[in-house]
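Entry 12.
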Amino acid sequence: METIDIKYLKSLAKQYPTISAAATEIINLQAILSLPKGTEHFITDIHGEYEQFQHVMKNGSGAIKRKIEEEFGNSLSVVEKKGIATLIYYPELKLEQVLRQEENLEDWYKVTLYRLIRVCKGASSKYTRSKVRKALPKDFAYVIEELLMGRPDITDQEAYYSEIVNSVICTGRATELVVAFCNLIRRLVVDHLHVVGDIFDRGPYPNLIMDTLIEHHSVDIQWGNHDVLWMGAAAGNLACIANVIRISAKYGNLDILEEGYGINLIPLARFAMTKYAQDSCDAFQLDYREDEYDIKDVQLDEKMHKAIAIIQFKLEGQLIKKRPEFQMEHRLFLDKMDLEKGNVMVEGKRYPLKDTYFPTLDKEHPYELSPEEKDVVERLKIAFLNCEKLQKHVRFLYTKGSLYKVYNGNLLYHGCVPFNEDGSFKKVCIFDKEYSGKELYDILEHYARKGYYSIDLEEKEKGLDILWFIWQNANSPVFGKSKMTTFERYFITEKETHKEPKNPYYHLLEQEEIVNKILVEFGLPVKESHIINGHVPVETKRGESPIKCGGKLLIIDGGFSKAYQPKTGIAGYTLIYNSYGLLLAAHEPFESVEQAVQNGSDIHSDLMLVQHVNRRKTVADTDVGKEIKENIADLEKLLCAYREGSIVEQQ
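Predicted 3D structure (tokens):
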């Protein structure tokens, strides 16, 4: 046996000091391999829609309903099963309703607890006792374990089992136990959550979504372009900060910055009211929701909207000039405006400007900030860098996130793999070296992390600039368009200038050889592997399908954001991957939590079976299973070392 093996095995022997200990662990691990694989839940493009996100999380895209159906079948009515589901989703709110309406609470508690115990037993059956035990709430760990492991149908245990339930009711803890069971069921039904990008922007509560994700038991995140934008802002990239504020202003969501994160926008407000006091800001009207926006703020917010937009164009212009390797000179417009004639040159053609009031623009140096703008920008930068809650959320994105992930035979990413029209991977120059395919993702992620963490000032600066590059460069995998026509949409009426042609990826992905090429590039076999792709809304009402190449590629953004729903016709796609295969859920818009609790209404989901496996998947078929097999092999080597005397047991 090699020296390096002996050294490793001696280290392993500290954890398993005897033949008995090592053999027992091998038995335990072998048994785990035979268990059904845990259920994975995929969601993407949440865009701040907290209520809908919460409901999809709570119902597991229909996984809770399916578990109830499996357990009770036709033994309960549809209304009863719907009531159990609503209780599991929103136990506290549903219990408030029950306490007001139910006449015989004791009987209701008994019946409900027995039903919840049955659902919970079904949900826990694919896990080891140890894993279930770790998931139990501390206050009721003993009680729940006894109820889950007990057999009320066996005479010897019936009295014991019933007495536990009766005692819980008599001591006034039934309500808390019901809540504990509901929370545990949701925890057990979905083993792992994948968020395939774009938590931020458009919707009003990305901060609440981040708080929920931080508390989740098992999650990974693939960064979307909007997530990277906020990461860049938190790292101190000025152009990213301006974009974050502009988008928040545009959608009437400045409250997310001021109240959600405590970022002081007063300096910007004062500046806007001073410089744009007499400006109607017609080109900067807000796209707000009438039921969620205080209309009295509209004039101030429109002025702030314009002020930060002009600052953004200046800051981006500085960055484009600083980094010619980004090849974005065609996005410089402030120096191409003729304000006297009221037009601007765009791609060789002059267009009338909708707005010619630019009080902070220096004709000779159009991309320089005015002294007042510099002061505002510096104050905003300090506010973003010192925002404790934002920094906590962004650190979580870095810790749990990446530009792509390979997990259990699936490749997850937001956006696209940049391609040329001929089907070859596009080569992109990043700081004097070309990258394509997987290497492009890796180098961009490398610099994105440097932009936040590096203590080397030169490397940090490169990283900060790359964060903005990832946000809106044509060669960014998470952007996937030739340009972002923000300037044109504000200032030019002609729709021809608003077009944002997509990367060839989006029509090439209909070809199976292209999908296979991507899978191979990321080290996956072409058989039984899938690409899970977010970013581009699927326009279902126009006949578009989220399933490409016979299910090898799945686009699961169907319009989670309310801003997209008129275009898509639905309220988003989510995906479930359990031991039986892949299930794609298409959701209709969610009304409200109140409706869900009061009437038992739910997100209506149409399920499409993407893949059904011939043999039920077990832990042995997963990435965790591979690790377990490696651990078993190491333990078997340790056993051999004990038995041949290379390592001595520690009795």
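Annotation: The longest strand covers residues 605-612. The CA atoms of residues 580 and 623 lie 17 Å apart.
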